[in-house]
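Please decode residue identities from the backbone states below.
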């Protein structure tokens, strides 16, 4: 069920999540994006955030909203965050694994995101698939050039990312692609183009998992990843993601954030 995150920088837990709450989240996500897309059709993607509720925190470039946007579309009164937490806490051995990882017990509330990734030709004008990046670059001040070529001496933000699909992805719908080589340094943003990444790593290091609802991914702060999309894909993807921190390793840039405890 588990792969080795220490060895590869990413770990897949296959079919560990119960499907009923996932279906509730999926239905709410579909309804939410109907509203988002109707708004985009009416006023354009660039202006959509001004015409959607502030709780959505809509990002037109990655086409994502905060998980709180789901609350009005859930048939039960349970907030989406609580539904997600209950879902994760039902996962076998979750507490044991998280304690073994060092206690990533604090979730960054602003980074609870619901994303719609479109198949080619389906999206609005501003939508862009995520290119190669490391989540540990969150709120990092990069130097103007790589000062430890091709890396930066600036430390990675110490976080762990959780990610789950609400629809099948990786075959008919866009998924994720990883470089399964753990990274302890931050690659400079000028080194994140596809040609450079493929020059730095061997072909065997690249991994595009095919995922279905019930699967759960965890990946490290330094793990290189991007949206995996190709011209043959014809379905769109819905997914949820979040960022976790250890309570004694929260950087100053995050001290004023709102947090949730999930263990």
């Amino acid at each position: 069920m588990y792969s080795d995150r220490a060895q590869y920088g990413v770990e897949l837990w296959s079919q560990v999540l119960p499907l009923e709450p996932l279906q509730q989240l999926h239905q709410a996500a579909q309804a939410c994006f109907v509203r988002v897309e109707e708004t985009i059709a009416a006023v354009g993607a660039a202006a959509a955030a001004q015409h959607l509720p502030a709780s959505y925190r809509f990002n037109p470039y990655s086409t994502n909203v905060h998980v709180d946007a789901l609350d009005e579309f859930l048939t039960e009164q349970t907030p989406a965050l609580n539904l997600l937490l209950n879902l994760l806490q039902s996962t076998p051995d979750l507490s044991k694994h998280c304690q073994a990882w060092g206690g990533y017990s604090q979730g960054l509330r602003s980074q609870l995101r619901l994303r719609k990734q479109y198949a080619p030709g389906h999206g609005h004008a501003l939508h862009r698939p995520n290119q190669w990046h490391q989540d540990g670059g969150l709120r990092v001040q990069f130097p103007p050039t790589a000062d430890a070529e091709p890396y930066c001496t600036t430390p990675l933000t110490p976080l762990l990312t959780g990610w789950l699909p609400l629809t099948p992805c990786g075959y008919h719908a866009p998924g994720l692609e990883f470089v399964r080589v753990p990274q302890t340094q931050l690659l400079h943003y000028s080194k994140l183009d596809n040609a450079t990444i493929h020059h730095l790593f061997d072909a065997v290091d690249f991994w595009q998992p095919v995922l279905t609802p019930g699967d759960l991914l965890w990946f490290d702060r330094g793990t290189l990843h991007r949206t995996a999309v190709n011209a043959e894909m014809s379905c769109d993807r819905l997914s949820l993601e979040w960022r976790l921190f250890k309570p004694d390793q929260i950087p100053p840039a995050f001290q004023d954030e709102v947090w949730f405890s999930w263990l």
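Observation: The mean pLDDT is 94.
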